[in-house]
Amino acid sequence: MTEKRAGVRRRAAALLLVAASTATLFTSGAPAAVAVEQPWMNTSLSADQRADLVLQRLTLTQKTNLLIQSGGPGIPEYGIPAIRGIDGCCGSFSSTTATTALPVGLALASSFDTDLAQAYGKVSGSEARANGYNALAGPTMDLARTPYSGRLWESQGEDPMLLGDIAAAQTRGEQSAGVTAIAKHYLLNNHESRRAHVDVQVDERTLQEVYLRSWETEVKEGQPGAVMCSFNEVAGEHACSNSHLLTDLLKDQLGFSGYVSSDYDAAHGYADYAAGLDVAGPGWQISGPNLQAAVERGEVPAARVDDAARRVLRSMFAQGIVDNPPAGSFTNPQPAPQAIPAATLQANGAVAEQVADASAVLLKNTGTLPLTSRTTSIAVIGADADAYIDGGGSGAIVNPANLTTVLDGITARAGKNVKVEQAAGTDPVSLADTLPGPAPVPSSALSDVQAQYWAGADGSSGTYIDPSAFAGAPQLARTEKQINLRTGLSADAINTSQVAPLGFPLALQPISARWTAKLTAPATGTYGLSLSHLGTARLYVDGVEVVADAGTTYGTHTAQVPLVAGRTYDIRVEYTTDAPNQFDGVFNDQAGAMLRLGWTLPSGTVPTNIQQAVEVARRSEVAVVVARDYTGEASDRGSLSLPQDQDRLIEAVAAVNPRTVVVLATSGPVTMPWLGKVSGVVETWYAGQAQGKSIARVLYGDVNPSGKLPVTFPASDAQPAQIGTKNPFETVTQLNPTVSYDEGVNVGYRGYQAKGVTPLFPFGHGLSYTTFGYEKAQTKDFKTKDPSKPAQVKLQLTNTGKVSGTEVVQVYVGKLPTTVETPTRALAGYARVTLEPGKKKNVTVDLDTRSLQYWDAATDSWVTPKGKVPVYVGTSSGDIRLTAVLDVM
């Protein structure tokens, strides 16, 4: 099997935590030998006792130096390292050394396996430590309120109990490696569009039952050393400035004993310390000497700095960082990461494979899968089938240690006697494909696409572009495949798409651009040539202006143009980012450049690149279409449709090959208008470096798929709004949007149940190559006087098929016995069970007590209503096999 790093760009980008880690503000060597006694080095003492002993000795300068996110001096004279953090929701980031690219957080959640989650965390923690870091920014705990979220793939789904379980286990794994886990993003960070300005309005009951519930599990069971507060506002106050969130809820109610660190540039002033912030992240200069000066002039209470320093010290002692600091901890500036030993990468790679295997979700199968040795030819179709598939932003692992692409994996597993042919079918995806609107004109219809970019031009606010916007030599000129652009952090800061980024400074500032190209139509007819854009744009065909629009808000503008097959047309597009609020000075959430030249085709027309893929599929026994999206930080999706006309590609391939299997490598849910025409569908998410090996094993049945959906797949783009969650992309041009969480506690699958809306695939769905029988459900009642003993559900599970398989038994509770409105169905427990064919097992599932309670805002407390509670046992939230009744006494 060929090991590749196809399409991987090693970019030393400005990251959330990395930027300051090589600061040269301080210089020091190893901790100096001191004559004074250091009683805090007594390892028989608790972390709290040791922290208190150090704190008694510290000067104000030492305390404030300690509260520097990355790049500080630490306190080497007392053996205390500086905080040195690195991004790491889905593996440990490094732009210079190879690290293990784990499957993303949503994939991990699909396993419903906390043991695997702990092993996953240990991989990330150990590699962060090996690279000289003592803090890791992960897990990502942003509940999947909306399927459009650009960072959906980083987190662990839409159910608060599952999210808390998986995150807590990942945290335990990270910290077992001797680093501090920085769980993120606290709290209500569900929108990437205008994330630094969006004001979330949520009632207290919903806050407690849905969004804080997973953090309660994380704090009590994961015990993270740190929590990262988020960019957004909650009830008019930024999360990192919000005393209700940070002090009342996190520290007081949940009992969090670690330190709160802000996200990059998410602090807002010295008053944040009084609200409960302990460490100001990079990008906001209110730490170190500046913080000391603020204390000395009375702007920040000295007691608050003492508490913050004690929290940092406690976390370092609790994680063993003081007793066993990573190599180079007392060398400033921080040494460059060293190569991780091959044996370590090999062992960690095995965990990446296990997670990828356990997370693949078989959505549909009518008999083509699993493939057998009788298959003699396979078409592997997809522009990214032979490339690294990952998202963009701080969660991406850009330098995977041992990558196999899907084409690699299938070719190797099929063997030398099987003919494997590849066809791209479409162009590779990029961040521009998060934009809603018609599919981009493909490279098969365009030739000689010449792009020119000018930096900093403001353009004009009128319909026509100011010619001065294109004055002088462009800052960047190059050939491109398409006219399809979206800038921002996920397009340029860390790029894991095959489409080359613009680079800095073009990625994060106003620009003007001009594209020229030759367009050749695949058939004669009338085409809808469109510009989907924000900012002034014009389209010319053979020198004639056919579209001109000021683009003050994002939209699509189309001209119906008759084209003749085989004839070449001159295309010119001119564009300036001059819309209101398009660049508002906050790079974390600005709209940025958005423009696409799209088209709609005459009926029956198939683009040339799709025609080529169809011919490969026609002559193959099985067609495997690898379909993907690309999303990332600060960029929500505008649509749930597969980008780059991949829906059309799948339809065309399935029309000529009834044994078409679609492998989805997506950030989350997508719509599937072709579902009834294909033989099989497997969701593999962004599966990390083992994507090729794992997908091949699943397709061939070497691995029996056992993953379950941790998010609901809507049947259409209209359904999320029907349950109360609008697309956050709609706020992209609003400077200070307000979003009200009116759906209350009915988030995700609960909302579908409450509204009677049938999704494409329900939460918890996932098929197997075998079948399972459910029998004999019994319940063990819950006694409120003895809450330490959980309610239980017992059942008998049988593998009724012909091969070994793993089932995730899911237990849901119905409406609680109270007049207060509670969810129709809510996950209360689950169990992952492996059985050989014909074997039975008695399964006991403990139910989470919170699922039997609701939050009473009037008394600020959990209420456990007594009475009978319906219980549903099944293989998904929509496929219930057994029912029972639980008594709460």
Structure, described:
- With 889 residues, the chain is of the alpha/beta class.
- It has 19 helices and 34 strands.
- The strands form eight sheets. It has a six-stranded mixed beta sheet with strand order 9-24-23-22-10-11, sandwiched between helices.
- The longest helix is centred in the middle third of the chain and has 18 residues, at 342-359.
- It comes from Kineococcus glutinatus.
CATH class of the largest domain: Alpha Beta
The overall number of domains is 5
The global form is globular
Give the mean pLDDT: 93
Which structural class is indicated by helix and strand composition?
alpha/beta
Taken as a percent bin, the fraction of beta residues is 15-25%
CATH architecture of the largest domain: Alpha-Beta Barrel
List keywords for this structure.
5 domains; Jelly Rolls; disordered N terminus; alpha/beta; Rossmann fold; six-stranded mixed sheet; 889 residues; TIM Barrel
Summarize the structure.
Keywords: Hydrolase, Signal. The chain contains 19 helices and 34 strands. With 889 residues, it is α/β, with parallel strands linked by helices.
Give the topology:
Elements: H1 47-57, H2 60-66, E1 85-87, H3 105-110, H4 114-130, E2 135-137, H5 160-176, E3 180-186, E4 199-201, H6 204-211, H7 213-222, E5 226-229, E6 233-234, E7 237-238, H8 243-253, E8 259-262, H9 271-275, H10 288-296, H11 302-318, H12 342-359, E9 361-365, E10 377-381, H13 406-414, E11 419-423, E12 446-455, E13 476-480, E14 484-486, H14 489-492, E15 511-520, E16 525-534, E17 536-541, E18 544-549, E19 555-563, E20 568-576, E21 594-600, H15 608-618, E22 622-628, H16 646-656, E23 660-665, E24 680-683, H17 691-700, H18 719-722, E25 738-740, H19 749-755, E26 772-780, E27 792-799, E28 805-813, E29 826-835, E30 840-846, E31 854-856, E32 861-863, E33 867-876, E34 879-888
Parallel strand pairs: 1-2, 2-3, 3-5, 4-6, 4-25, 5-8, 10-11, 10-22, 22-23, 23-24
Antiparallel strand pairs: 6-7, 9-24, 12-13, 12-15, 14-21, 15-20, 16-19, 16-21, 17-18, 17-20, 26-27, 27-30, 28-29, 28-33, 31-32, 33-34
Helix pairs in contact: 1-11, 2-10, 2-11, 4-5, 4-12, 5-7, 12-17, 13-17, 15-16
